[in-house]
């Protein structure tokens, strides 16, 4: 879907940048890396603290390598998100390979709803491309930004290919309504958010630390019965990703959250630079 004339004018600086070819965008990302990491040192203390605690077995040199790779990847995500304003479906299909589409296609044929239990891993922003691959109404739940201009920009980016963005505070009611209306949909929830103090939470071991997890996804799965799926990204090279889906099931000995944590931690340990280490994930303590 092309941007409207009004959207092009309103977000003209970002629209103009998005028209640039990917090699030029990655040159911009390289410059951005120097500014973010070397000059501004954006959340460097948070990143280093998180990495040291997550990988106590790693040397200082190894931690530094992961840190640099993470900041490079973070800047790549920024320009890749802006590119969403003008990227074509043809180019998307060259850059995002779905390794096991049959998993979701099978649920789609059965008219079974899907709960995409995602994380800040790989390029999570590219999950908004899933409507290109799967003909199922798609929703994602997000926390609105305080800045109205940038909030609208991100909504424009995320909704361009058919995803509908719903404010997180309306998420549960939206999913219950979908269930009551017998709708077959795909909802995306980011599961590695840090809960607020008053939110319902459960404490689990994650990356060598006691970590608070929101219980919403588990409650939604229990009440509405969707297929719960974890999307795992692998970065092949700059601007090229593979996405593989894993079913997250409750068993007699483990909850959906337990199995989500296992999948996420395995993914992080394989490619630590692809997770959002600048996020204050452990700001709560048990």
TrEMBL record:
GO MF, one annotated term: acyltransferase activity
InterPro entries reported in the protein's UniProt record: LipA_acyltrans
Segments crossing the lipid bilayer: 12-36
BP-aspect Gene Ontology terms: glycolipid biosynthetic process
Pfam family, one: Lip_A_acyltrans
GO cellular component: plasma membrane
Subcellular location per the Swiss-Prot or TrEMBL entry: Cell inner membrane
Alphabetical UniProt keywords: Acyltransferase, Cell inner membrane, Cell membrane, Membrane, Transferase, Transmembrane, Transmembrane helix
PANTHER family linked: LIPID A BIOSYNTHESIS LAUROYL ACYLTRANSFERASE, PHOSPHATIDYLINOSITOL MANNOSIDE ACYLTRANSFERASE
Name this polypeptide is given: KDO2-lipid IV(A) lauroyltransferase
Natural source organism: Gillisia mitskevichiae
């Amino acid at each position: 879907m092309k941007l409207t004339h009004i959207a092009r004018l309103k977000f003209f600086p970002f629209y103009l940048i998005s028209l640039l070819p990917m090699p030029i965008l990655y040159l911009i990302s390289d410059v951005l890396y120097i500014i973010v990491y070397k000059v501004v040192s954006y959340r460097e203390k948070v990143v280093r603290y998180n990495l040291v605690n997550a990988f106590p077995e790693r040397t200082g040199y190894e931690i530094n390598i992961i840190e640099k790779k993470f900041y490079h990847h973070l800047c790549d995500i920024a320009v890749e998100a802006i590119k969403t304003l003008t990227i074509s479906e043809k180019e998307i299909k060259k850059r995002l390979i779905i390794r096991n589409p049959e998993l979701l296609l099978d649920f789609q044929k059965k008219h079974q709803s899907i709960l995409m239990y995602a994380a800040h891993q790989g390029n999570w922003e590219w999950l908004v491309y899933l409507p290109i691959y799967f003909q199922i109404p798609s929703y994602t739940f997000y926390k609105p930004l305080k800045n109205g201009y940038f909030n609208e920009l991100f909504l424009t980016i995320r909704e361009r290919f058919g995803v509908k963005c719903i404010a997180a505070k309306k998420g549960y009611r939206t999913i219950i309504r979908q269930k009551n209306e017998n709708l077959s949909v795909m909802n995306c929830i980011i599961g590695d958010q840090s809960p607020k103090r008053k939110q319902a939470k459960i404490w689990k071991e994650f990356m060598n630390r006691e970590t608070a997890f929101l219980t919403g996804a588990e409650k939604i799965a229990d009440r509405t019965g969707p297929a719960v799926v974890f999307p795992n990204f692998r970065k092949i090279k700059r601007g090229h990703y593979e996405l593989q889906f894993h079913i997250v099931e409750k068993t007699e000995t483990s909850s959906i959250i337990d199995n989500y944590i296992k999948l996420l931690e395995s993914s992080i340990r394989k490619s630590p630079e692809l997770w959002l280490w600048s996020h204050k994930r452990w700001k709560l303590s048990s």
